[in-house]
Design brief:
This protein has a single domain, classed as Thiol Ester Dehydrase, Chain A. The chain is about 15% helix and about 45% strand.
Length: about 100
């Protein structure tokens, strides 16, 4: 969960061209497959919706099999991040 939040925050900051983004919401996360120690996890995301002060992302974690060159989805969720000012109040997202 922490990796999803961190990856989502990095993507939201990148898309919105600011590091002043905070997590507002993480929807239900269903863990579909186990992940064992030393297995590689790759996290992917895409913009689902861009609002005035917020961005909603679809985030998915996949377990990679390096020998077989395959990936299996282990979990996915939608996440909402909000751009804030120095006082912690929502502010409009500016174009890059």
């Amino acid at each position: 969960m922490a990796w999803l939040d961190e990856a989502g925050g990095i993507m939201a900051s990148s898309v919105c061209c600011t590091s002043n983004m905070v997590t507002l919401k993480i929807e239900e996360v269903l863990f579909k497959e186990p992940v064992k120690v030393k297995q590689q996890i790759r996290i992917y995301g895409k913009v689902d919706r861009l609002g005035k002060t917020s961005i909603r992302l679809w985030v998915e974690a996949r377990r990679a099999d390096l020998k077989a060159q395959t990936e299996v989805v282990v979990c996915s969720t939608r996440m909402v991040f909000v751009r804030i000012n120095s006082e912690g109040k929502p502010v409009p997202i500016k174009a890059c």
